[in-house]
């Protein structure tokens, strides 16, 4: 007969991963790391945390095997421990949205009530065909380091905070399909609003780079051409 104490210990080991995911800030750090490797100071800045708090959260994630590190001189770089961690993050969010009533109003409060709804967004499987046909251009509005770590082939890189000044770099005769980190990333929504207000044809990809990677669609890496 199986040992009850051993079974309890096994399920407590499973629960440790759940406990590591029980902080919204740790989930946000995983979301950032799904875009590519980062240092603790870069993660702290992007997540709005001080270095001490960010380091503590990252240590929790590392102790449960969700993130890994490499040392470059005195700097420590963090990354997701595997693609299965990105899959877990994606599944957790989709399950929460489907079964937890609080998610929908929180999403609307964050992304804005005027955000395009899902039927107005471009599905990822249609985007490459639109680009190949010359009907659309993909616009990546994430920070440049995230674009360099991996982006949709052929996508232009203009961080959202630079978009107003660089709008002239976008072709005027093509629809602009905007994407950012994932389905819950506000950068694409902000960019679509800005472009539409300036009279451009703009629409959002219905999710983002996280889901694109998980779907095993083609990804290019490297900085944007000068």
Per-chain topology:
Layout: H1 4-20, H2 24-33, E1 38-39, H3 40-47, H4 51-63, E2 67-72, E3 75-80, H5 83-99, H6 103-111, H7 124-132, E4 136-140, H8 144-149, E5 156-157, H9 163-166, E6 175-179, H10 186-197, E7 202-204, H11 209-214
Parallel strand pairs: 4-5, 4-6, 6-7
Antiparallel strand pairs: 1-3, 2-3
Protein name: ArsR family transcriptional regulator
Domain Rhodanese: 132-221
GO molecular function: DNA binding; DNA-binding transcription factor activity; thiosulfate-cyanide sulfurtransferase activity
In N-to-C order, the SSE pattern is: HHEHHEEHHHEHEHEHEH
Number of domains: 2
Rounded to the nearest angstrom, the distance between the terminal CA atoms is: 67 Å
Q: Order of strands in the sheet with the most strands? A: 5-4-6-7
Give the C-level CATH assignment of the largest domain. Answer: Alpha Beta
Second-tier CATH architecture of the largest domain: 3-Layer(aba) Sandwich
CATH topology of the largest domain: Oxidized Rhodanese, domain 1
Radius of gyration: 19 Å
Whole-number average pLDDT?
Answer: 93
Protein name: ArsR family transcriptional regulator
Keywords: DNA-binding, Transcription, Transcription regulation
Organism: Kitasatospora griseola
Domain Rhodanese: 132-221
Could you explain how this protein is built, in words?
- There is one protein chain.
- By secondary structure, the chain is of the alpha/beta class.
- The chain has 2 domains: 4-85, Winged helix-like DNA-binding domain superfamily/Winged helix DNA-binding domain (Arc Repressor Mutant, subunit A); 112-214, 3-Layer(aba) Sandwich (Oxidized Rhodanese, domain 1), CATH 3.40.250.
- The chain has 11 helices and 7 strands.
- The strands form 2 sheets. It has a 4-stranded parallel sheet, sandwiched between helices.
- The longest helix is centred in the N-terminal third of the chain and has 17 residues, at 4-20.
- The protein starts with a helix and ends in a 12-residue tail after the last helix.
- This is ArsR family transcriptional regulator.
- Pfam families: HTH_5, Rhodanese.
- Keywords: DNA-binding, Transcription, Transcription regulation.
- Residues 132-221 form the Rhodanese domain.
């Amino acid at each position: 007969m199986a040992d009850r104490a051993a079974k309890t210990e096994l399920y407590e080991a499973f629960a440790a991963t759940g406990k590591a995911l029980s902080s919204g800030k740790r989930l946000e750090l995983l979301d950032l790391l799904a875009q590519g490797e980062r240092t603790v100071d870069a993660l702290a800045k992007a997540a709005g945390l001080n270095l001490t708090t960010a380091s503590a959260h990252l240590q929790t994630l590392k102790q449960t095997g969700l993130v890994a590190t490499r040392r470059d001189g005195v700097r420590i770089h963090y990354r997701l421990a595997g693609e299965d961690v990105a899959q877990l993050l994606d599944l957790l969010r989709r399950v929460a949205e489907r079964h937890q009533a609080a998610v929908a109003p929180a999403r609307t409060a964050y992304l804005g009530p005027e955000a395009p709804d899902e039927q107005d967004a471009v599905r990822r499987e249609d985007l490459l065909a639109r680009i190949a046909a010359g009907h659309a251009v993909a616009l990546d509005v994430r920070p440049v380091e995230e674009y360099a770590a991996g982006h949709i082939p052929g996508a232009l890189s203009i961080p959202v905070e630079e978009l107003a000044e660089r709008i002239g770099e976008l072709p005027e005769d093509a629809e602009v399909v905007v994407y950012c980190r994932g389905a819950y990333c506000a950068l694409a929504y902000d960019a679509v609003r800005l472009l539409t207000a300036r009279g451009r044809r703009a629409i959002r990809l219905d999710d983002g780079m996280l889901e694109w990677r998980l779907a095993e669609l083609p990804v290019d890496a490297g900085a944007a051409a000068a």
